[in-house]
Amino acid sequence: MHKFVLDSNGFGQNFLKDDSWVRRIADAIDAKPGQRIIEIGPGQSAFTRYLVKDAGKVEAIELDKDLIEWLSNQFKDGQLELQQADALKINWKELLEKSLPLKARLCGNLPYNISSPLIFALAKFASLIEDQTFLLQKEMAQRLNAKPGTKSYGRPSVIIERLYTMEIHFDIPP
Fold first, then answer.
1. What is the pTM of this model?
2. Using omega within 30 degrees of 0 as the cis cutoff, is the peptide bond preceding 101 cis?
3. Rounded mean pLDDT of 38-58?
């Protein structure tokens, strides 16, 4: 089983600005030098700053062209490897197999509208992934982590629990 960590907030996607929460999430990710860290949607680099500091290097997948340009000027050469791509359309198998036998650690602040399809797409490659730490909308985190007999339990819970050990670390206030 792979550990799959979920952090939750009560709203949809936004850029997290509170540095104490950003650091707390980065601590939950617990990136180390020598690990392959892939951040999905680095946005304005809130997590990325800490991930680079902790791991030394981060790969990032960002859709927004303007953010790609901005991000490329925020870090020293070799610290951030950026790929402009849609995380729902990327060839995850190819990307994840690139560093085997080293398994990738995935993280990010996922928008509500892509969180479910992305998590299910990544489930196909669970054997290539060490763990995943995502900031998700609270309801999504609860649905994925639901237990049998609860109101939130359903197909997503069943599929995900077969592959991962789930954990909700904390709730982030509005």
1. 0.88
2. yes
3. 95
